[in-house]
Amino acid sequence: MPSTETQYYNNPDLPWVVQKFGGTSVGKFLDNIANEVVKEYVKQNRLVVVCSARSGESKQNGTTNRLIRAANFALQPGCDGYWEELDSILKEHTQVAHDMIQSDTIRKSLIADIEHDCTKLTSFLKAAQIINEISPRSRDIIIGAGEKLSCRIVAAVLQDRGIEAQFVSLENIIDREFEWAGIRINHEIFPTGFFGIVPGSLLSTVGRGYTDLCAALTAVGLGAEELQVWKEVDGIFTADPRKVKSARLLPIITPEEAAELTYYGSEVIHPFTMEQVIRSHIPIRIKNVQNPSGAGTVVFPTDNISKDGTSSPHSPKILAENGYSLDLSRKYPTAVTIKDGVIVLNVHSNRKSVSHGFFAKIFSTLDRYGVVVDLISTSEVHVSMVLGVDSADKDLARVIEGLRSVGEVDVLQNMAILSLVGKQMKNMVGIAGMMFTTLASAGVNIEMISQGASEINISCVIEESCAVTAMNVIHDQLLSKRNKLVLPALKTSLE
Ligand SMILES: Nc1ncnc2c1ncn2[C@@H]1O[C@H](COP(=O)(O)OP(=O)(O)O)[C@@H](O)[C@H]1O
Ligand SMILES: N[C@@H](CC(=O)OP(=O)(O)O)C(=O)O
Predict the structure, then answer these.
(1) What is the CATH number of the domain that holds 53?
(2) Going by CA atoms, what residue is nearest to atom 26 of ligand 1?
(3) What is the pTM of this model?
(4) Which residue, of 157, 201, 302, 328, has the greatest Cβ tally within 10 A?
């Protein structure tokens, strides 16, 4: 039962809502999270709070990156860099405890927990250095310490503000299939975060931003009413609001569009999150910690399966108000996005093998080096591939060397993928033509074109230096509400 001093606690009669906070939000806006978000929402809901590892100003020097560095140092014989990284993580988290927590009892207990976690981790890395090995599973344990420390702080800050919160580690909730394996939840607010061992390893199977997936699994497991992903932007916009001043906030977006935007540069939400909750028909709402009263963006399925699994139209009114209609006749794409820092590899066959052999050799070479292809365009004797920024970390020279056995290879660096995304573009005859004419009129040279198999994405590759200009002209011409799109006339109207 809640203590007499506790003013805020989870009422078992209220529906579950899962709230996920990113590392920079925990780092910069912990007071907002406690006072303006959790305290407000717990009045109407039972809350689970899922947090990422703390970051300060940027994710670059955040706890997760420092833990990854520490693990790498531990693998260098005689290098005590890991100790320094862990010591700075310890000091930073302890400092937050001093700065944020007034109650002596709560602060002391938090600091003891932080010290305990950091000491354990130091011993773990010391042992790893001695045996000169860190298995994928051990690496997950090291990385997950960031979420644990963050959640310990958040739980203590919530307690300090009169909220009955309890730290729970979800290390054992995942079974092999990534499904919810069950956890007993009662009335408390549970700040959680790291979800333990995953098949393969966390970074290779899920990748960075994995806390979104943890939150999604929690929401699915509890049958939550809503999953809220709290960020430092008001929601998903028609383009990156930092780069396009006239970008508009989208009140709703479909899961397919949100996933496509994430894959192609607008990393607002981890794509696996969508799969999990949409399958369970739980809406995801993206909101701003600095503007909690804003409505945010709801990731809203346009299919017609309701939460209980029966078939019923999915609020056609909301869809219609936002420009989606069930016959997919909307006249606008949804958003434009850019993924920069990509590399284009063009491979011209040396014709020493039949075309399927040519493709097989290319893909087995990429597979050998774990290279992911973001976009591809092919003919029988030519393949153009776009490799993501992460590929630069792989041994690109050896990948290219491997590909040279099948043909000539040329490499274009500093390129960007520009993608126009929209569920309803499928029926917008002429939209691709308009996109490329608009780019041509702005003098943007197109290196490669690809239309996603999903039919909701038209992508092209351009030079990185023109990316922001290109995104702005596309936004002005194709996404601004002021310019209603005039597409080529059709025999049957799609209006
Ligand atoms: N279409 C888009 N809508 C909203 N944000 C976008 C979009 N494309 C790119 N972004 C960028 O994604 C970032 C996401 O928000 P933020 O809270 O800063 O991320 P994180 O939680 O990863 O720290 C913002 O900095 C924003 O500029
Ligand atoms: N801390 C992890 C997990 C995460 O989800 O982070 P964020 O929510 O801050 O993007 C990472 O950087 O990958």
Answers:
(1) 3.40.1160.10
(2) 240
(3) 0.86
(4) 157
The answer to the question of residue 284 being in a domain is no
Task: Locate the ligand 1 atom nearest the alpha carbon of residue 209 and give its number.
Answer: 22
List the beta bridge partners of residue 322: none
Contacts of residue 145, defined as CB under 8 A and 6 or more positions apart, other chains included, come to 67, 117, 121, 194
Is pLDDT larger for residue 281 or for residue 135?
A: 135
Q: Would you say residue 361 lies in a domain?
A: no
Residue 270 CA to ligand 2 centre (angstroms): 10
CB atoms within 10 A of CB 448: 19
* Within a domain: 300: no
Q: Which residues line ligand 2 (CB under 6 A)?
A: 22-23, 52-53, 59, 64, 146, 208-212
Side chain identity at residue 444, one-letter code: V
Residue 473 CB coordination number (10 Å): 18
Best residue for ligand 1 mutational test, from 150, 266, 474 (most atoms within 8 Å of Cβ) = 266
Q: What's the 381 CA to ligand 2 centre distance in angstroms?
A: 41
CA-closest residue to ligand 2 atom 6: 209
DSSP per position, 335-404: EEEEEEEEEEEEEEE-SSS-HHHHHHHHHHHHHHTTPPEEEEEE-SSEEEEEE-GGGGGS-HHHHHHHHT
- The ipTM (two decimal places) reads 0.94
Give the position, in ligand 1's atom list, of the atom nearest the Cα of 234: 4
Residue 188 in contact with residue 38, Cβ under 8 Å?
A: no
Determine if ligand 1 sits within 6 Å of the CB of residue 236.
yes
Q: Of 261, 301, 257, 262, which is closest to residue 279 (Cα–Cα)?
A: 301
Is residue 215 within 8 A of residue 227, CB to CB? The reply is yes
Q: What is the number of domains present in the chain?
A: 1
Domain annotation covers residue 129: yes
Q: How far, rounded to the nearest angstrom, does the alpha carbon of residue 134 sit from its chain's CA centroid? A: 26
HSE-CB at 266 with a 13 A cutoff on CA atoms is 27
The response to whether residue 266 sits with its C-beta less than 6 Å from ligand 1 reads yes
Query: What is the Å distance from ligand 1's center to 232 Cα?
Result: 7
- State the distance from the centre of ligand 2 to the C-alpha of 13, rounded, in angstroms: 32
User: From ligand 1's centre to the CA of 371, what distance in Å?
Assistant: 25
How far apart are the CA of 438 and the centre of ligand 1, in A?
A: 25
Nearest to 331 by CA among 239, 253, 425, 439: 425
**CA angle 133-195-282, nearest 5°?**
150
**pLDDT tens by residue, 198-250:** 667 778 778 888 899 888 888 888 889 999 999 999 999 999 999 999 999 99
Residue 170 is part of which domain span?
A: 16-232
Report pLDDT digits (tens) over 39-87.
999 999 999 999 999 998 777 789 999 999 999 999 999 999 999 999 9
